[in-house]
Write a structure and sequence with these properties.
Radius of gyration: 28 Å
Distance between the termini: 103 Å
CATH topology: Four Helix Bundle (Hemerythrin (Met), subunit A)
Number of domains: 1
Strand content: under 5%
Order of helices and strands: HHHHH
Oligomer: single chain
Number of strands: 0
CATH architecture: Up-down Bundle
Length: 197
């Protein structure tokens, strides 16, 4: 075997080693990028579900306070406790909102802004800052649940989940309201909503 043949063999071995190194490095880089994206998707999912949960809790507490304040349903808790619970829920909703601002995509952030604005209006109505009739109260709840669905859709698109929770496949649903027990109770509830400050 001549010198030229030996040099060609050495060059081929070196070229093969470099090609193997570059292939392994590219595969490792791609694997690391995938792990990083997966880790961020996990954190986004956690932030998205935490935000929606905090909005739902704050709406639930606002309903309890509104019903107590308007005399629609008495609460066993004193007014001060209802106020404290609602304030704590609003604070947690704010923290969850900030996580969305840090992790969410543009569309998710816009949907969160809309949802947050509607949720705050429900708080204002529950504590009497904004006077409201019972029909307006229910309209505001319809708006918050539409905003939650819009947030869900934006979050699903951001996470790459197919489908959506609203649209042609999923007709808009109305509030679940218990039927009035008596005709006079229904009239009293409507009158209480009309008389609210």
């Amino acid at each position: 075997m001549g010198v030229v043949e030996q040099l060609v063999t050495i060059a081929a071995v070196l070229l093969g080693a470099l090609a193997t190194y570059w292939t392994n490095a590219a595969a490792e880089k791609m694997r690391n990028r995938h792990e990083l994206l997966t880790r961020w998707d996990d954190r986004k999912l956690s932030a998205y579900e935490g935000y929606v949960d905090s909005v739902r809790v704050s709406v639930f507490l606002a309903v309890r306070r509104y019903e107590h304040r308007e005399g629609l349903r008495a609460s066993e808790q004193p007014e001060a406790e209802l106020i404290a619970e609602q304030s704590a829920a609003a604070r947690l909703r704010g923290q969850a909102f900030e996580r969305i601002m840090l992790l969410g995509g543009d569309e998710v952030i816009e949907a969160a802004h809309l949802l947050n604005a509607v949720a705050i209006e429900i708080d204002w109505q529950a504590d009497g800052t904004v006077p409201v009739t019972l029909d307006e109260w229910r309209d505001r709840h319809r708006a918050v649940f539409r905003a939650i669905n819009e947030f869900h859709d934006a979050a699903r698109r951001d996470l790459g989940v197919q489908g959506q929770v609203s649209g042609e496949q999923h007709p808009e649903r109305d509030l679940l309201l218990p039927p009035a027990r008596h005709a006079e109770e229904s009239t009293a509830v409507e009158r209480a909503g009309d008389e609210s400050p």
